[in-house]
């Protein structure tokens, strides 16, 4: 690893540990030439994941798009950023573990809804109203009825 300060190739690792999320290795390094310390992160290079949108177009998977949608759905709700990041990470993990390189936006949306339903029903309804694009009040009410029926079955 090249020193970012003096550009020397002579560095040594002084400490290694996994990051909090376990997806990377954090290494503290020291340059043998200038003596300065710096941090590097080592992670697995993942195969690009392509999302097939409703209109048939394709784009690279972007976890920030899911997170932004969740932030809007959870506005003024008692849901932490850590919980939202957990949802995004679990959804991405499930997709990558399925070993597919292309996934539909519909599938991603359903996975997010599954996660939200067990966390916050108001956020679920908010996300579903945008994601499912309820055509009218009847379709919205049908979703609410389905939720309340499921909730009563669990009790």
From TrEMBL:
UniProt keyword annotations, A-Z: ATP-binding, DNA-binding, Metal-binding, Nucleotide-binding, Repressor, Transcription, Transcription regulation, Zinc, Zinc-finger
Domain ATP-cone, residue spans: 49-139
Domain of life, per lineage: Bacteria
Zn finger (unnamed) start-end: 3-34
Cofactor note as given: Binds 1 zinc ion.
Essential cofactor(s): Zn(2+)
GO molecular function terms attached to this record: ATP binding; DNA binding; zinc ion binding
Pfam family, one: ATP-cone
Record keyword Metal-binding present: yes
Entry's family note: Belongs to the NrdR family.
Physiological role: Negatively regulates transcription of bacterial ribonucleotide reductase nrd genes and operons by binding to NrdR-boxes.
Protein name: Transcriptional repressor NrdR
Lineage: Bacteria, Bacillati, Bacillota, Negativicutes, Veillonellales
């Amino acid at each position: 690893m090249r020193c970012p300060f003096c550009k020397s190739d002579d560095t040594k690792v002084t400490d290694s540990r996994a990051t909090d999320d376990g997806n990377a290795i954090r290494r503290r390094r020291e340059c043998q030439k200038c003596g300065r310390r710096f941090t590097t992160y080592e992670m697995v290079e993942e195969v690009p994941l392509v999302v097939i949108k409703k209109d048939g177009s394709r784009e690279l998977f972007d976890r920030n798009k899911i997170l932004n949608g969740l932030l809007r759905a959870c506005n003024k709700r008692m849901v932490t950023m850590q919980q939202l990041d957990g949802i995004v990470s679990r959804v991405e993990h499930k997709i990558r573990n399925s070993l597919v390189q292309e996934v539909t936006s519909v599938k991603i949306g359903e996975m997010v809804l599954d996660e939200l339903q067990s966390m916050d029903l108001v956020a679920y309804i908010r996300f579903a109203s945008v994601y499912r694009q309820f055509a009218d009040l009847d379709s919205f009410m049908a979703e609410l009825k389905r939720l309340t029926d499921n909730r009563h079955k669990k009790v």
